[in-house]
Design a protein that fits this description.
single chain
Length: about 170
């Protein structure tokens, strides 16, 4: 008996093959799509278009840098690939404190949401405080003065300003 293989419809190719048959690529359960993912860093990113130079002749080329405020709050660092490339002294620092009233309102709002979705925890909206904090990060550099650049830094409730001589 001769059977034409083109006419046989295979429902399960694993029945014929001696080894399992897998599709290439990711499975549907492995494809995670995050529409509003958090940034991968806790510091603002600066897209610097200028070449910065110091008195010793060292240069900082244009590029993307993280701007990091030092723990002692006296220096701003240009960080690239987790390496400090330059440091700028802070000339102006403003740290806004949250009042007790604002903190009470925030806690009251969280309690209200928790009470509303007590019986339906899966429907409860995600906590947005981390997203709001990261949305308030900003770093920029200004070239309006002919003698120096002005570096602006804002991360949450901390604002700093540094000057870089041209």
């Amino acid at each position: 008996m001769i059977v034409d293989c083109n006419l046989i419809a295979l429902n399960n190719p694993d029945d014929i093959l001696p080894y399992p048959n897998y599709k290439s690529g990711l499975l549907d359960k492995d494809k995670s799509f995050i529409k509003f993912g958090y940034p991968s860093t806790n510091y603002p990113i600066l897209n610097m278009p200028y070449i910065l130079e110091d008195y010793e002749g060292n240069t900082l080329p244009p590029g993307h840098y993280q701007i990091v405020l030092a723990p002692n709050r006296k220096t701003l660092y240009f960080v690239e690939s987790n390496e400090i490339k330059a440091s700028i002294p802070v000339a102006n620092l403003v740290e806004k404190m949250t009042s007790e009233q604002e903190e009470k309102e925030r806690i009251k709002e969280q309690e209200k949401i928790a009470k509303k979705y007590k019986n339906r925890p899966r429907k409860r909206p995600l906590d947005q405080t981390e997203r709001k904090r990261q949305a308030s990060m900003e770093a920029s550099i200004d070239d309006s003065n002919p003698k120096y650049y002005i570096l602006y830094y804002r991360n949450g409730n901390i604002q700093a300003k540094g000057y870089i001589l041209k």
